[in-house]
Amino acid sequence: MIKEFKDFISRGNVMDLAVGVIMGAAFTAIVQSLVSNLINPLIGLFLGKIDLSNLVFKVGDATFKYGTFIESIINFLIIAFVVFLIVKVMNKVIKSREEEAEPEETKEDEMVMYLKKISDALDEKSDK
């Protein structure tokens, strides 16, 4: 059972996933800092308030922190856009690698194909 666990953990996909999760967490922290320290103060200038997270409204005893919700939406949009760009670049890289891997047909390949057809035709004629 320990050997199976070791094999499972050392597989490439699991390691790639672990690296992706760690990088995603670090990237999320960077985006949250960007939004909290740069974007929100800029938006706050236009709204007349410096900190969006302090935007609240109360109904009775309930407090609704819509400023924090706006920050979360901004975080999501930035992360989604960056992930979109990463996927777009990766698709281009994969596509270019696939195109490079496909061999181009040359005159020699065409001649070999025709010679094979002739050979097959002669084999069929001799079998009759």
TrEMBL record:
<protein>
    <recommendedName>
        <fullName>Large-conductance mechanosensitive channel</fullName>
    </recommendedName>
</protein>
<dbReference type="InterPro" id="IPR001185">
    <property type="entry name" value="MS_channel"/>
</dbReference>
<keyword id="KW-0406">Ion transport</keyword>
<dbReference type="InterPro" id="IPR037673">
    <property type="entry name" value="MSC/AndL"/>
</dbReference>
<keyword id="KW-0407">Ion channel</keyword>
<feature type="transmembrane region" description="Helical">
    <location>
        <begin position="21"/>
        <end position="46"/>
    </location>
</feature>
<keyword id="KW-1133">Transmembrane helix</keyword>
<comment type="similarity">
    <text>Belongs to the MscL family.</text>
</comment>
<dbReference type="InterPro" id="IPR019823">
    <property type="entry name" value="Mechanosensitive_channel_CS"/>
</dbReference>
<dbReference type="GO" id="GO:0005886">
    <property type="term" value="C:plasma membrane"/>
</dbReference>
<comment type="function">
    <text>Channel that opens in response to stretch forces in the membrane lipid bilayer. May participate in the regulation of osmotic pressure changes within the cell.</text>
</comment>
<keyword id="KW-0813">Transport</keyword>
<dbReference type="InterPro" id="IPR036019">
    <property type="entry name" value="MscL_channel"/>
</dbReference>
<keyword id="KW-1003">Cell membrane</keyword>
<keyword id="KW-0472">Membrane</keyword>
<dbReference type="Pfam" id="PF01741">
    <property type="entry name" value="MscL"/>
</dbReference>
<dbReference type="GO" id="GO:0008381">
    <property type="term" value="F:mechanosensitive monoatomic ion channel activity"/>
</dbReference>
<keyword id="KW-0812">Transmembrane</keyword>
<feature type="transmembrane region" description="Helical">
    <location>
        <begin position="66"/>
        <end position="87"/>
    </location>
</feature>
<comment type="subunit">
    <text>Homopentamer.</text>
</comment>
